[in-house]
Design goal:
By secondary structure, the protein is an alpha/beta fold. Strands 2-1-3-4-5 form a 5-stranded parallel sheet, sandwiched between helices. The longest helix has 29 residues. The chain is elongated. This is Response regulator transcription factor.
Length: 194
């Protein structure tokens, strides 16, 4: 989802329309505070991006960006700044602190949407990585040991011998690992963790 935070109704609406014309799900937020209150906590692995105006009456875009950094959300929520009043030091500072891009108004809408699509792809990757890490964290210590041996290409008998457990126990651990990691084969598991 593309979130557009800009206090100018006409620009916000035209950006939502432009995004939707490119097949990008988009919603507009009239103020930074509304965005922070309503949307900032609900990002998922499907990918999100934020188009953020620098100058707004309630909270400026840089302050919003600071809050997102403090919440640890910028990896899953790439931020593209929009401004009619930007300067080079502001742009450089924003990019150094993790902003995805910085566009000055007026901007080329197609170039902007190309960057939005790239940011959404990055967000999806970060979200997917977070899901995999959460699944890994759900494994027990013994399941992690079995997982490492499976990934090393060891057969169940070898895993059982190395860990000093029965083959049936290895089979149970293997089934739990596949279930928790949401895969059906060792090849799929290896692809997920590469």
């Amino acid at each position: 989802m593309l979130h557009i935070v800009d206090d100018e109704d006409v620009l916000r609406d035209s950006l939502v329309w432009l995004a939707r014309s490119r097949g990008i799900e988009a919603c507009g937020h009239a103020s930074a505070q509304l965005f922070l209150d309503q949307a900032a906590a609900r990002f998922d692995a499907h990918g999100d991006c934020l188009l953020l105006d620098v100058r707004m009456p309630d909270i400026n875009g840089v302050a919003v960006f600071d809050q997102l950094i403090a919440r640890g959300l910028t990896a899953r929520l790439p931020v593209i700044f929009l401004t009619g009043h930007g300067d080079v030091p502001m742009a450089v500072d924003s990019l150094k602190r993790g902003a995805f891009d910085f566009f000055e108004k007026p901007f080329d809408g197609n170039r902007l949407m190309d960057r939005v699509e790239q940011a959404l792809a990055l967000s999806r990757q970060a979200g997917a990585g977070a899901l995999v890490q959460a699944r890994l964290a759900s494994l027990s210590a013994r399941e992690r040991e079995v997982l490492d041996l499976i990934l090393a290409g060891k057969m169940n008998k070898v895993v059982a011998d190395q860990l000093g457990i029965s083959m049936r126990t290895v089979e149970v651990h293997r089934a739990h690992i596949f279930d928790k990691m949401q895969v059906k084969t060792a090849v799929e598991l290896a692809g997920l963790l590469k």
